[in-house]
């Protein structure tokens, strides 16, 4: 069985998310900061009239450098709504066989709640990011969703 992923880079590392979660990938655009917001939410962008919160994946992954000026944003769909993820560069959409994908528990790594699996792409290691875990671990995102439902 095969699965398709968007593969992208942050620094020299490769990451992936399921293609099923991706709405689009856009080039750098103006991010408007929101005061008193979550540490991982960089701000919001206006994408064709839709205001979308943007998550700084570098902060989520404890990468302490700032994102480049020519960054890209992956717009993902989740149970909490649409979110943008700041990345350095989108590489490609790739198809991997099930036997190339090792759940993180099988690899023997601990304390990697954002990484759900490791993909062995012909010797190239790609870390599979769990969007659910990224959004679930952030209380501000969950409370924003509850407020939207109550309104």
Structure description:
It is built from four helices and eleven strands, in the order βββββαββββαββαα. The protein starts with a strand and ends with a helix. The longest helix has 12 residues, at 139-150. The protein has a single domain (2-150), classed as CheA-289, Domain 4 (OB fold (Dihydrolipoamide Acetyltransferase, E2P)). The strands form two sheets. Strands 8-1-2-11-10-9 form a six-stranded mixed β-sheet. Strands 3-6-7-5-4 form a five-stranded mixed β-sheet. The protein is globular, with a radius of gyration of 15 Å. It is an alpha+beta fold and 151 residues long.
Summarize the amount of helix as a percent range.
Answer: 10-25%
> Which structural class do you get from the secondary structure elements?
alpha+beta
Please provide the count of β strands.
Answer: 11
At the fourth level of CATH, the homologous superfamily is CheA-289, Domain 4
Q: What do the pLDDT scores average to?
A: 85
CA radius of gyration is 15 Å
Number of helices: 4
How many strands, what sense, and barrel or not for the largest sheet? 6 strands, mixed
**Neighbour order of strands in the largest sheet:** 8-1-2-11-10-9
Q: What portion of residues belong to β-strands?
A: over 45%
Domain CheW-like: 2-140
Pfam families: CheW
InterPro entries: CheW, CheW-like_dom_sf, CheW-lke_dom
Protein name: Chemotaxis protein CheW
